[in-house]
Amino acid sequence: MDYKTMVEEKFGKPLKEIMYVVCVEKGMEKWEGAELLGVPIKTFTAWRSKFRFGPMQVQADKADKMRKETIEKYNDELKEVNLARPFENKGENSLKEFKELTERILELEKYKRTIQEVAPMSEIAITLKIGMLESTLESIIQFESGKLYDQYMFELQNLKDD
Length: 162
Known about the structure:
Layout: H1 3-11, H2 15-25, H3 30-37, H4 41-50, H5 55-78, H6 95-115, H7 120-144, H8 148-161
Helix pairs in contact: 3-4, 5-6, 6-7
C-alpha cells in the first residue's frame, strides 16, 4: 500500500483535502504534518508543493487572487467612466477643481492598473498611489461636510488621553 492510499484511508478524505487542513487551516510545519500523517518528511513536502499548500505558495496565490479581484473591482468601477470627458471645474483654482482633478487622476491610475502587467515593486507603488488618492478624496469629502475638523480634534484628544 502506498502512502497516499494509507493516508486517505486513515482520514477518510482525498489527499488534497487532508493536506489543505494540515497545511493551510492548521498551519503545521513539515515535520508536524509528516508525523500526523505518518509519512516521511520528503513525501509530505512533495505533496505540499504539488497542491501549492506551502507557506510561500499559499501567500503568493492569495496575493494573486487579491490582485485579480482588485482589477475586477476597478473594471466594474470604470465601466461607465469616460476618461476623456471634459473637466467641469477647469481653471477655477478651487477646492472643487482640486477634488475633480484628484478623482480623475484616481480613475486614470485605476485604469492603468487594469491594463498593465507590472512588476511586484511597481505594483506596490501603484497601490500606494491609489491609496493616497483615495485618502486625499476622503479628506476633501470630510472637509466639505464639516467633519474633518471634528476628526482632527477627536484624534488630538485621544493622543492627550494616552
